[in-house]
Amino acid sequence: MIRQIPNILSFARIVLSIALLTVQPLGNVFYLIYVICGASDILDGYMARRMGTGSKAGARLDTVADIIMAGILFVRLYPFLKLPTAIIGWILSIGAIRIASIIAVALKHKTFAMLHTYSNKFAGMLLFLIPFFLDFPTNIWMYAVCGAASLSAIEELLIQLGSAKLEPDRKSIFHRL
């Protein structure tokens, strides 16, 4: 049972992300659930590495939990963001690059995987901070987030296209396993 704690944390993130659909956006309960989701995202991978229980299935579950959480947050926070058309287009472009990377992995390696690069972690951290910075000028914050997300998406696509084998734990385009 202890060996399953990282996967339980990832699954809990999925359940708690869905719970965000049932609470008032940006209310106290929303922030409480949101912070727990963020903590589970940090802890699942850390614990899996620390306990030596990392697996392909666990990495996929973590990625699915991240995608579900990001999608739900976009739906819940979109009305508060007041995004200009250019930013919406930029977000769609980032999504297209991510989809291209997923397709590249599926065609080359016959599996589903996303990389755990430093740039993906940095972009994820910036995305996580969005609800806490809604009082900050949204356009400036969104340009920073979209810039980091673009660089991480492009890096991941280039790694996927240029690698002969799947390297889900590759840290950057400049780092080999």
TrEMBL record:
InterPro entries: CDP-OH_P_trans, CDP-OH_PTrfase_TM_dom, CDP_ALCOHOL_P_TRANSF_CS
TM ranges: 59-81, 87-106, 118-134
A cellular-component GO term for this protein: membrane
Keywords: Membrane, Transferase, Transmembrane, Transmembrane helix
Enzyme Commission code: 2.7.8.5
Top-level class of the enzyme under EC nomenclature: transferase
Single GO BP term: phospholipid biosynthetic process
Record's keyword annotation contains Oxidoreductase: no
GO molecular function (one): CDP-diacylglycerol-glycerol-3-phosphate 3-phosphatidyltransferase activity
Pfam families per UniProt: CDP-OH_P_transf
UniProt keyword Transmembrane helix present: yes
UniProt similarity note: Belongs to the CDP-alcohol phosphatidyltransferase class-I family.
Protein name listed in UniProt: CDP-diacylglycerol--glycerol-3-phosphate 3-phosphatidyltransferase
Originating species: Ruminiclostridium hungatei
